[in-house]
Write a structure and sequence with these properties.
This protein has 97 residues and is α+β, with helices and mostly antiparallel strands. It has four helices and three strands. A three-stranded mixed sheet has the order 1-2-3. The protein is elongated, with a radius of gyration of 25 Å.
Protein backbone atom coordinates (compact mmCIF):
# COMPACT_ATOMS: atom_id res chain seq x y z
CA UNK A 1 0.00 0.00 0.00
CA UNK A 2 1.47 3.35 -0.93
CA UNK A 3 2.13 5.82 1.80
CA UNK A 4 -0.69 8.22 2.57
CA UNK A 5 -0.08 11.70 1.19
CA UNK A 6 -0.76 14.45 3.71
CA UNK A 7 -2.64 17.46 2.39
CA UNK A 8 -2.50 20.88 3.99
CA UNK A 9 -4.70 23.83 3.10
CA UNK A 10 -3.07 27.26 3.43
CA UNK A 11 -4.28 30.76 2.64
CA UNK A 12 -2.39 32.90 0.15
CA UNK A 13 -1.33 35.28 2.91
CA UNK A 14 0.04 32.52 5.14
CA UNK A 15 1.81 30.93 2.18
CA UNK A 16 3.50 34.23 1.30
CA UNK A 17 4.68 34.68 4.87
CA UNK A 18 5.98 31.09 5.22
CA UNK A 19 6.88 30.01 1.70
CA UNK A 20 10.15 28.20 2.58
CA UNK A 21 8.36 26.12 5.24
CA UNK A 22 5.61 25.04 2.83
CA UNK A 23 8.09 24.27 0.05
CA UNK A 24 10.02 22.07 2.49
CA UNK A 25 6.80 20.22 3.26
CA UNK A 26 6.19 19.64 -0.44
CA UNK A 27 9.75 18.40 -0.83
CA UNK A 28 9.05 15.82 1.91
CA UNK A 29 6.04 14.58 -0.09
CA UNK A 30 3.21 16.62 1.38
CA UNK A 31 0.58 18.24 -0.83
CA UNK A 32 -0.22 21.92 -0.18
CA UNK A 33 -3.50 23.40 -1.39
CA UNK A 34 -3.66 27.18 -1.62
CA UNK A 35 -6.92 28.83 -0.70
CA UNK A 36 -8.40 32.24 -1.41
CA UNK A 37 -11.26 33.12 0.94
CA UNK A 38 -11.74 29.46 1.79
CA UNK A 39 -11.84 28.24 -1.83
CA UNK A 40 -8.99 26.07 -3.17
CA UNK A 41 -7.40 27.84 -6.14
CA UNK A 42 -4.14 25.92 -6.62
CA UNK A 43 -2.11 22.97 -5.42
CA UNK A 44 1.62 22.45 -4.96
CA UNK A 45 2.91 18.87 -5.15
CA UNK A 46 6.20 17.12 -5.77
CA UNK A 47 6.97 16.60 -9.45
CA UNK A 48 5.97 13.36 -11.13
CA UNK A 49 8.83 10.90 -11.70
CA UNK A 50 10.45 11.13 -15.10
CA UNK A 51 9.59 8.49 -17.67
CA UNK A 52 13.07 6.98 -17.24
CA UNK A 53 12.51 6.58 -13.50
CA UNK A 54 9.12 4.97 -14.08
CA UNK A 55 10.58 2.53 -16.63
CA UNK A 56 13.41 1.64 -14.23
CA UNK A 57 10.91 1.03 -11.42
CA UNK A 58 8.81 -1.24 -13.64
CA UNK A 59 11.93 -3.23 -14.58
CA UNK A 60 12.83 -3.69 -10.89
CA UNK A 61 9.30 -4.91 -10.13
CA UNK A 62 8.91 -7.16 -13.18
CA UNK A 63 8.68 -10.77 -12.07
CA UNK A 64 8.62 -9.90 -8.38
CA UNK A 65 4.99 -10.93 -7.91
CA UNK A 66 4.35 -14.57 -7.18
CA UNK A 67 1.18 -16.42 -8.08
CA UNK A 68 -0.38 -18.23 -5.14
CA UNK A 69 -3.07 -20.72 -6.13
CA UNK A 70 -3.96 -21.94 -2.63
CA UNK A 71 -4.91 -18.83 -0.62
CA UNK A 72 -6.26 -20.85 2.32
CA UNK A 73 -3.05 -22.87 2.72
CA UNK A 74 -0.17 -21.67 4.87
CA UNK A 75 2.60 -19.93 2.96
CA UNK A 76 5.22 -21.33 5.34
CA UNK A 77 5.50 -25.05 5.99
CA UNK A 78 4.72 -25.84 9.64
CA UNK A 79 8.24 -27.24 10.13
CA UNK A 80 9.72 -23.87 9.16
CA UNK A 81 7.89 -21.91 11.86
CA UNK A 82 10.29 -20.66 14.49
CA UNK A 83 7.85 -21.49 17.30
CA UNK A 84 7.43 -25.08 16.07
CA UNK A 85 11.18 -25.53 15.77
CA UNK A 86 11.69 -24.39 19.38
CA UNK A 87 8.89 -26.67 20.63
CA UNK A 88 10.30 -29.68 18.77
CA UNK A 89 13.73 -28.93 20.14
CA UNK A 90 12.44 -29.08 23.73
CA UNK A 91 10.08 -32.04 23.55
CA UNK A 92 11.14 -33.77 20.34
CA UNK A 93 7.59 -33.51 18.96
CA UNK A 94 5.20 -30.85 17.88
CA UNK A 95 3.20 -29.43 20.81
CA UNK A 96 -0.59 -29.45 20.73
CA UNK A 97 -2.37 -26.24 21.67
Amino acid sequence: MPPKITTTDVSITTLRQNLPEYLARVERGERVRITNRGRVIAEITSPMPTEDAAVAARKRLAGSLKRYDAPLESVIASGEWEMNAETRGKSGAKANS
